[in-house]
């Protein structure tokens, strides 16, 4: 602990002493209310009724709906990215399923190490497992954007380990989304916007260089590329979108309410790639480029945000049975279609080329149809001594894949051009019971808050296979109609490309239908030892049907040195149960080697093949969290908080490297499989409890409000986060004789992805002025440096620091009708493009994929929007 406690806290104390009159996270949240911040009552982080934000023993952000809606984004993930410095939202492209449900994370940890609650109850995760080379690889996240932002009353973010209080996943913290519960009134909002941007460092292709004979000149950096003639940077106006939301509150008789929010959203795709200078057609007989290369469409890669269309509903209801009991329920539903492109398939590649269907090559299109729903129902109230809350919530996320504008080359010209790829489905059902009361104990300043509870949860995960034609092969037939075999008698297939191109699909071998259950008990104590000193204790026991049981505890305390200054800290243990996706996800493609079929891909850690290489039932991740900080209000309306933290995680669940994809490893894998009588399995990867890690950081947040300035009020707010994660130990081994060294199971690239999931430094600065009719917003987001790992260290890409500026002006046309106009990324900031980085040896994909997916602020450029809201 020495390495943790002194230096970060000393740094935050010094920094706080020099803070200008500025800002705070636990704060921008409060600008819309006349109540002082000390009256902002929270639910998260304590089960003691009436606890306020500044009285919390751990850092909690309280973000209201006005703060979320300030700016041009309509989705929760990007709204939180703008106002919570320790929150990161990744926006990659050309990464298959991850484009459709993008992951978000807290404090630089994995997306599945943050627990998400809806109205205080666990919200289900998505069915999608992030497998591509992005931040959060190997994790399963909650689709926050399945909840309409217009339905939110406030969001509470607990930035502290809380597994002992709330269960699995709460290692980095907890996000609790509270929805509106008004029985009257509402609003209707129409917003629209588009990107108006210049692709920094990506020049426009204005022509193709030819010699004196009219022949196309090959690119000196690649014989399969033409020599382009380039002009100024590309300008694009795309990503047009329109969003319609409506919210209304209705009375249910005299004793209840129902609050309903609906949203319809449509967004066109964006393209942040340049022009493709690769060859399109086969070379002519004399070895020259085909003259059609001069006129073919070269804007053919889809690198950007997908086309999306979604319909989202949330209904929140309550009914008072009497003065002491309330029935409540929350329903959510979203139906979304999202279309993104795969890599362009060149007509010059004869192994892919289907002459009669795609004479100019083709770009496969991947359609994800996503349905997400949940139903929460419960009863809460009070008896003579106890408050209670009993509920059941069930939620589901289903993703169906269809790939069109594609082909399976083994079918030659008879190939279908559209394939259903199959379905991922995840469902979670949770039964919960909580009870709390106050107990008078001699010697305590106030009664002891005592809470206890129980939980039972069922998790289910299923993979359904797709069209057989997407992953099957056809044996070649000779001129006499006989199947073709090689000289050893093994079949010869019509193509060595044996699956639908660019497709997301699941074969029969990938089918999964698994479930598990768990139960938990917890106890929670909150005591004011004196008027100045508070202590909370929590303990939790959980038992899972797959990996067993775990026990965790937490101690948090706060001491008030004065009415304006308090010191707080906590220490806790935590855990995260491995998801069913990590345990059983199977995505197998078939490769034929010497006529023998081999399965290659991601397999279950408990499969026969994985166990032969050291795979086993995954165990829970275990964490130890320590934090220390202070809250300070040196003058009226100025609040400053600082919290340093260290999070040690043992047995982190990570995806192994692919074993058997090199000659040396292939020989070892074959030897092991032969010894265990395993046939038809080639190179594989699977999840392992592979590494230990340490995350250290500091959060500083502040807020200052000035009344009566220019006939309005001004709120200045700031939040800053410093965060660093490192792999402290690689603990994985493979095989009974440790056939693979730990560094080959979790190599440099995977290590770098884990350590560079988020920028080390991130900050949000906001000035929000509200007059009688006019409002003005100016926000800056600072993102520190990030490194995107390549397959070798020389291929690493550094994303430099950036400062992104947003601005917005609002005007009340009438008392109930407000118009807002604004611009996100006002100065059109981009990460450095690969065209510049790799100059003068610019590769083909430097043009078409110029920006790194690890960019913490994305690579979409300037966005202008308008928003009209009618309130009633």
Key features?
872 residues, mainly beta, Maltoporin, Chain A, five-stranded mixed beta sheet, 12 helices, disordered N terminus, transport, TonB-dep_rcpt-like
- Tally of alpha and pi helices: 12
CATH architecture: Beta Barrel
Helix/strand class: mainly beta
* Strand proportion: over 45%
List the uncertain runs.
1-39
Distance between the termini: 55 Å
- Which fold name corresponds to the CATH topology? Maltoporin, Chain A
Average of pLDDT: 89
Whole-number tally of structural domains: 1
Largest sheet: 22 strands, antiparallel, barrel
> What is the general shape?
globular
- What's the number of extended β-strand segments? 36
Residue share in helices? under 10%
CATH class term: Mainly Beta
> Which value, in Å, is the CA radius of gyration?
29 Å
Signal peptide: 1-26
Pfam family, one: Plug
Keywords: Cell outer membrane, Membrane, Receptor, Signal, TonB box, Transmembrane, Transmembrane beta strand, Transport
Domain TonB-dependent receptor-like beta-barrel: 268-826
């Amino acid at each position: 602990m020495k390495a943790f406690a002194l230096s970060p806290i000393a740094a935050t104390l010094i920094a706080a002493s020099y803070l200008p009159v500025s800002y705070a996270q636990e704060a921008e949240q409060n600008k819309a209310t006349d109540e002082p911040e000390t009256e902002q009552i929270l639910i998260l982080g304590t089960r003691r009724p009436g606890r306020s934000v500044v009285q919390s023993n751990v850092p909690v952000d309280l973000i209201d709906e006005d703060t979320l809606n300030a700016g041009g984004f309509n989705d929760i993930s990007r709204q939180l990215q703008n106002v919570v410095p320790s929150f990161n939202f990744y926006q990659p492209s050309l990464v298959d399923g991850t484009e459709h449900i993008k992951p978000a994370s807290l404090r630089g940890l994995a997306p599945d190490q943050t627990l998400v609650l809806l109205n205080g109850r666990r919200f289900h995760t998505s069915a999608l497992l992030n497998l591509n080379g992005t931040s959060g690889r190997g994790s399963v996240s909650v689709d926050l954007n399945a909840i309409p932002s217009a339905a939110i009353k406030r969001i509470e973010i607990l930035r502290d380990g809380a597994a002992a209080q709330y269960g699995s996943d709460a290692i980095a913290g907890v996000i609790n989304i509270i929805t509106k519960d008004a029985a009257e009134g509402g609003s209707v909002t129409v917003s629209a916007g588009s990107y108006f941007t210049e692709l920094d460092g990506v020049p426009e292709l204005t022509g193709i260089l030819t010699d004196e004979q009219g022949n196309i000149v090959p690119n000196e950096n690649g014989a399969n590329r033409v020599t382009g003639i380039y002009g100024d940077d590309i300008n694009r106006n795309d990503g047009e979108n329109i969003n319609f939301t409506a919210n209304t509150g209705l009375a249910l008789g005299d004793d209840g309410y129902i609050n309903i929010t609906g949203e319809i959203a449509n967004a066109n795709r964006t393209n942040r790639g340049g022009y493709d200078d690769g060859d399109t057609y086969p070379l002519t007989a004399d070895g020259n480029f085909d003259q059609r290369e001069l006129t073919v469409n070269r804007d053919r890669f889809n690198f950007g945000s997908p086309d999306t269309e979604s319909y989202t509903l949330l209904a929140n209801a309550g009914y008072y049975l009497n003065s002491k009991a309330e029935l409540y329920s929350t329903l959510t539903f979203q139906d979304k279609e999202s279309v993104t492109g795969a890599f362009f398939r060149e007509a010059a590649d004869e192994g892919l080329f289907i002459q009669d269907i795609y004479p100019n090559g083709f770009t496969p299109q991947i359609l994800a149809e996503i349905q997400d729903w949940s139903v929460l129902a419960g009863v809460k109230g009070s008896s003579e001594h106890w408050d209670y809350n009993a509920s059941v919530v069930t939620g589901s996320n289903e993703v169906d894949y269809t790939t069109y504008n594609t082909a399976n080359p083994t079918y030659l010209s008879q190939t279908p051009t559209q394939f259903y790829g199959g379905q991922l489905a995840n469902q979670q059902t949770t039964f919960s019971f909580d009870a709390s009361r106050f107990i008078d104990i001699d010697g305590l300043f106030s009664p002891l808050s005592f809470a206890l509870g129980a939980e039972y949860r069922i998790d289910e995960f299923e993979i359904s296979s797709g069209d057989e034609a997407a992953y099957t092969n056809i044996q070649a037939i000779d001129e006499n109609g006989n199947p073709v075999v090689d000289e050893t008698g093994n079949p010869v297939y019509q193509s060595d490309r044996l699956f639908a191109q660019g497709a997301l699909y699941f074969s029969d071998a990938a089918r999964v239908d698994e479930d598990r259950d768990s139960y938990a008990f917890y106890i929670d104590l909150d005591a004011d030892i004196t008027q100045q000193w508070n202590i909370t204790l929590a303990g939790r026991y959980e038992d899972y049907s797959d990996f067993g049981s775990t026990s965790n505890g937490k101690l948090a305390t706060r001491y008030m040195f004065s009415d304006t200054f308090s010191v707080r800290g906590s220490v806790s243990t935590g855990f995260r149960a491995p998801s069913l996706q990590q345990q059983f996800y199977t995505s197998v493609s078939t490769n034929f080697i010497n006529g023998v079929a081999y399965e290659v891909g991601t397999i279950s850690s408990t499969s026969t093949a994985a166990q032969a290489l050291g795979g086993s039932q995954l165990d829970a991740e275990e964490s130890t969290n320590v934090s220390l900080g202070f809250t300070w209000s040196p003058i009226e309306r100025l609040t400053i908080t600082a919290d340093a933290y260290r999070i040690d995680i043992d047995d982190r669940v990570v995806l192994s490297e692919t074993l058997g994809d090199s000659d040396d490893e292939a020989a070892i894998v074959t030897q092991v499989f032969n010894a265990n009588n395993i046939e038809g399995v080639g190179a594989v990867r699977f999840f392992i409890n592979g590494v230990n890690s340490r995350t250290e950081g500091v959060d500083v947040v502040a807020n200052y409000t000035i009344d009566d300035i220019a006939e309005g009020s001004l709120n200045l707010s700031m939040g800053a986060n410093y965060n660093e994660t490192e792999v402290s130990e690689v603990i994985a081994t493979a095989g009974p004789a440790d056939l693979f060294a730990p560094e080959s199971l979790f190599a440099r690239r995977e290590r770098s992805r884990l350590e560079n999931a988020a920028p080390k430094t991130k900050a949000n600065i906001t000035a929000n002025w509200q007059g009688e009719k006019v409002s003005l917003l100016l926000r800056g987001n600072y993102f520190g440096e990030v490194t995107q790992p390549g397959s070798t260290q020389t291929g690493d890409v550094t994303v430099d620091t950036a400062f992104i500026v947003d601005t917005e002006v609002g005007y009340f046309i009438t008392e109930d009708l407000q118009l807002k106009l604004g611009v996100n990324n006002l100065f059109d900031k981009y990460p450095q493009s690969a065209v510049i980085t790799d100059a003068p040896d610019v590769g083909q994909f430097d043009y078409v994929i110029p920006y790194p997916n690890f960019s913490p602020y994305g690579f979409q450029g300037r966005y202008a929007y308008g928003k009209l809201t009618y309130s009633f």
